[in-house]
Amino acid sequence: MTKRRKEEIADWYDKHSKSVLSFILLIVKDYQQAEDLTHDTFVKAYLYFDSFKHFSSEKTWLFSIAHNVTVDFLRKRKPSLFFKEIFLMKKDDNPFPEEVIRIKEDSYELYKALGELKDTYRKVIILRKIKDFSIEDTAQILNWSESKVKSTLFRAIPALKRQLIKEGYLDEKTI
User: 76, 116, 133, 162: which has the fewest Cβ within 10 Å?
Assistant: First the structure.
């Protein structure tokens, strides 16, 4: 079983690691941390391989693990971020060079605006509209009901449009 598990996880890593990394990167905005959390995601997938019952695709299961690993990381990190921002009174919103290279010139504004949205809006837009997960898979990954995914996305899209207008990337007249 262990050899099969290693081969399966290695195959999943080859297929999905870049997608998992970009998902985490959009949430944490730190390339090195996103790499570490991606590694943690696949370690957990290996450790809990037997609990994967194939009710969903392996990609959905991996994104669910990635989401939980990232949320756990952010929960632990929040107090230190709070104090860092209070004492330094400076927040680094500049993307890392690796991230800039990965983001196409014309979509940079979208990712910047996404970063200004509240966390739930950002996650649902990333999963549904950028990563193309179904409503059902998105609900599974976020551990939400399907109706919550639908209603959150319904509110998130106009919020994103407002943010793009606010930042001057969209003209109100073109919408």
Answer: 76
Secondary structure percentages of the chain, helix, strand, coil, to 5: 80, 0, 20
Q: What is the pLDDT of residues 106-141, one digit of tens each?
A: 466 777 888 889 999 999 988 988 888 999 999 999
| Residues in the chain, overall count | 175
DSSP class of residue 118 equals -
H-helix segments, 89-126: 97-102, 108-116, 119-125
SS3 95: coil
